[in-house]
Structures are given as C-alpha cells and as structure tokens.
Amino acid sequence: MKYVIALILAIFISQTCDAQLFKREKVIYDANQGRGSTDNNLLRWGYFLGVNSYDFNFDYNNTLRDVYVKRSPGFNVGLIGNLRINNFLDLRLEPGLFITTRELNFSNTYFQGMAFDDSDLTREVKSTYIHIPLLVKFSAKRINNFKPFIVVGISTALNLSSNEDNPNDNSNGQFRTKSNMLFYELGFGIDFYLYNFKFTPSIRGLFAINDELVRDKDPNSPWTSNINSMKSRGVFLNFTFQ
User: Fold this and answer.
1) How far apart are CA 123 and CA 213, in angstroms?
2) What is the distance between the alpha carbons of residues 221 and 178, in angstroms, rounded to a whole number?
3) Closest to 156 (Cα-Cα) out of 126, 138, 135, 177
4) Which residues contact 188 (CB under 8 A, 6 or more apart)?
5) What's the pLDDT tens digit per position in 15-48?
6) Whole-angstrom Cα distance, residue 144 to residue 124?
7) Per DSSP, which regions of 115-197 are E strands?
8) What is the dihedral of CA 80, 84, 89, 90, to 10 degrees?
9) Helices marked H in the chain — which ranges?
10) 3-state helix, strand, coil in the chain (%, to 5)
11) What is the mean pLDDT of residues 120-143?
C-alpha cells in the first residue's frame, strides 16, 4: 500500500510541476497581499485526512528471537491551526484522531519449559490516539503555485485503547500499554495553491520518547520479562486542506 501511495503522490507532484514550471503563462493563485491572502493571514485554519502505519521498536534484556510486529494501515483525521511568523516560518498545532492496529507475534522460544497454545503466541494491540503535535514549519521560497517545506516538532498522545489500568494482564489475554505518550516528529511536504484553497500532501515520521509497555504482574512473564523497552514509531501520509 505504501508503494501505491508513493507512486500516486509522485505522479501528482510531477504533473503539477510540469503544468506550472513549463507553461509560459502562469496563473498565480492566492498571491495578493491583501486581506484575502491565505499565506499572509496571521492565523489560518484547516483540516487533514490521512493514513498511517505504526510499528514498535523493541530493546531486549536477553538475546532471543525478536517479537515480530505485523502492521495494518490506519486512519487519521484532524484540524490545523497555523500561526504565521514570517514568509518562511510557521508554528502549527494539529490535534487529530489516529486509529491503528498492530499484531505482535512471539516466538515459542519465549515459552521454554512452559505450557502454551497457539493463541499465546499472538497479541493484538489496538491504539486510538488523541494526537496533539506542536510543529515548526520551515518553508522554501514559493515557486509559482507550489512551495516545499519541512516540519519538525514534538507531540503528545493519549491512547484511549491502552488498557493501562486493566487488572488483567497477558495471563488473561490482555496486552497492556501506557495511556500517555511523547513523540518527536520530522516530515516534509509541498503546498499546492489551487483556485479556492491550498492543498498540501505531506509525509511525516514520528518516534516515541518514552517506553509504552505495561509489564505483567509475573516478573518472569514470557510476554514482557525480556522487553527492556517498547516504543512506538510510525509514518503517516496526510492530505491537508486550508
């Protein structure tokens, strides 16, 4: 799926650049310096839709087979508040809802000397994040009707599906994660100036700062005892409308 999205995005960018860079007559949208200019408003608002792919990065206490993470595509939706600093610098707040599912597959080597069945080797981790990033957007100089940029920042997320306070753990089939997470983010995108609005495809990676795993009560638990830290990481593709 990620290759299809990348191909579609590349074709879209290529066609837009061809249309805008190689035509002699260019219509510059939304370029006036007056009241109606999107780029020159101190505050701007918008919304985004997108897809995501989350993973886990594990650090282990002992050398055993890695926990395999099976990823599934997720969905993003949210709002945008943009504060203009100057022509090349913006401060952004992008609160959104991020929904994703990951499946953890454990090797049977984790259960040596223990009775287990096939269901013990798999745990599904569903995550519903209320995701709030604070971002700094660094834009290049506008060329006709498009402007590339990079974005960096930090974010916090509340996982509504974490099960952190659930008294049951993996011995009862419940894999638990922490509710509150911190991330740092890095991405890039291109602003396309259309007749009535600004359309922005962007790709961003995010990387957890804190450990997300809630350990089982049993210190020798085959699911959690060998994991020193478990941190979310992910990539998402957003389509923004302003």
Assistant:
1) 13
2) 18
3) 135
4) 148, 149, 150, 151, 202, 203, 204
5) 444 444 444 446 666 654 434 456 778 999 999 9
6) 47
7) 122-139, 146-159, 180-193
8) -20
9) 2-21
10) 15, 50, 35
11) 94
Assigned token pair, 56 = 């886990």
pTM confidence score: 0.81
Q: Closest Cα to residue 231, out of 205, 213, 204?
A: 213
Which domains, from first to last, does the chain contain?
Answer: 29-241 (2.40.160.20)
List C-alpha distances in Å: 126 to 54, 198, 237: 11, 33, 20
Supply the DSSP string of 5-18, one letter for each residue: HHHHHHHHHHHHHH
Identify whether the C-beta of residue 77 lies closer than 8 Å to the C-beta of residue 5: no
**Cβ atoms of 55 and 100 closer than 8 Å:** no
Closest by CA to 131, choosing from 159, 112, 107, is: 159
**Structure-token pair, residue 151:** 């974005």
Tell me the Cα Rg of the chain.
22
Q: Which two tokens stand for residue 190?
A: 């291109």
Looking only at the bridges linking them, the beta strands covering 227-241 and 198-208 are: antiparallel
156 close to 179: Cβ distance less than 8 angstroms:
no
Q: Check if the beta carbon of residue 72 is closer than 8 Å to that of residue 104.
A: no
pLDDT digits (tens, 9 = 90+) for 54-89: 999 999 988 778 899 999 999 999 999 999 999 899
The contacts found for 106-113 with CB under 8 angstroms, 24 or more apart, are 106/67, 106/222, 106/223, 107/64, 107/65, 107/67, 109/64, 109/65, 110/64, 110/65, 110/222, 110/223, 110/226, 111/222
